[in-house]
Structures are given as structure tokens and as C-alpha cells.
Design a protein that fits this description.
Layout (H helix, E strand, L loop, with lengths): L2 H9 L1 E7 L2 E4 L4 E14 L3 E16 L5 E16 L6 E5 H5 L4 E8 L2
Antiparallel strand pairs: 1-3, 2-3, 3-4, 4-5, 5-6, 5-7
Length: 113
Amino acid sequence: MQDQEVLQAFSQSFLVTAGLTTSFWLNTTKAVSVGPKIYGLSIDLQHWLVGSLGLGVSMEFWNEERTRALVLGTFIPLVLYDEMVGSGNGGIGWAWDEFGFAVSPSVVYWWRL
């Protein structure tokens, strides 16, 4: 693959995430959020290469006005999708069958205007 082809492939790739969470407030400035989350890597948002469906869990630390928050989270993959290059068949399987139990940590800073 030439350098130009690699750059073109990267420019057409998108990382897509979506989630639906429920927050449980521990007090006025701390909350725990839990819910399903999806990660996927797509070319032109039409051809999906890899993806994962799992559980997102996070702890939110808000300021008193609830305008800013530090969020410490993790993603626990449960189901994986992997497009096998060249064959055109998509493979779906349980995450723990592929690599065992794993988590993906994250640190996020939120602010509202």
C-alpha cells in the first residue's frame, strides 16, 4: 500500500461512539452513570471494520454549580464485531472468548456554557 493510499484510508475513517446511560446521584456533586455503549470504526460511515458493544460505567465529580465535571470511566466490552479483511464475512463473538475480561479506562472533563 502506498503512502497516499494510507492517508486516503485514514481520512475516510471515523470512530463512532454512542451510549445510553442512567445516572445515580450520590449527593449534589457526585454521580455514578451506567449503561450500554457502542464503539465502532467505519469507513465513510458505510463500511464497518470493527466494533464493540459493552457496558459503560463512570464516576462523575461535578462542581457546586454543575457546570464542570471530571469523569472517570471505563468501558467493558461484551460483544465484538470484526470484519475479516478480504473474505467479506463479518465475525461476531463474545469478547471474553477473544481476549478474556478487559476494560478500557477513560478520563473526561465536561463543561457547560
